[in-house]
Nitrile hydratase
Amino acid sequence: MSDDHDDSPIAARVRELEAVLEEKGLLDPTELDQVLEAFAHKASPANGFRVVARAWVDDGFRARLLQDANAALPELGLSMGGGLQVQRLHVVENTEDVHNVIVCTLCSCYPLSLLGPSPTWYKSPAYRSRVVSHPREVLEQFGLTLPGTTKIEVWDANAESRYMVPPRRPEGTDGLGEAELAALVTRNGLIGTAAV
Ligand code: FE
């Protein structure tokens, strides 16, 4: 499948599994490479930045995105597709009263196609357990201090469901175009560990 040197036990198991599937003729290695390459190439947080900027300038898109994100993404030429299994994306918007943050407590489920590869800390046991039990403290460790009146909602991703957080549009950005707005958004903002 690939020429990189990942020596982790999981990578070794995946290579074994791949070899068995190829041997039995159940897997075409060329096809698999093509799917993975296309996916890895397209998976970038820039996709998430574009989605948020569009939602900030277009109320209709924002409403469709919140209601059915999988159906709204193709409007920007995007999808949740990784090929084999399509995950449902839930877009959970920050407001004055509620701040959202995403996690996968079981492993590291993440909306890869919109956010790119997940950061190492997202996969760490410390983040996965602490953000659920002490979300306010964890956000403070990221430098994000929220008013005591702001409610924090923690969303736990799984094999079927992924989450993305559109941050609140910063003040004083009325004159900015969509591309300039997209440039304000950060990967951590889409996870909920930064304000924008
Ligand atoms: Fe997971």
Summary: The two ends are 37 Å apart (CA to CA). The CA atoms of residues 88 and 161 lie 5 Å apart. The pocket of fe (iii) ion is lined by residues 104, 106-109, 157 (CB under 6 Å). The chain has a mean pLDDT of 91.
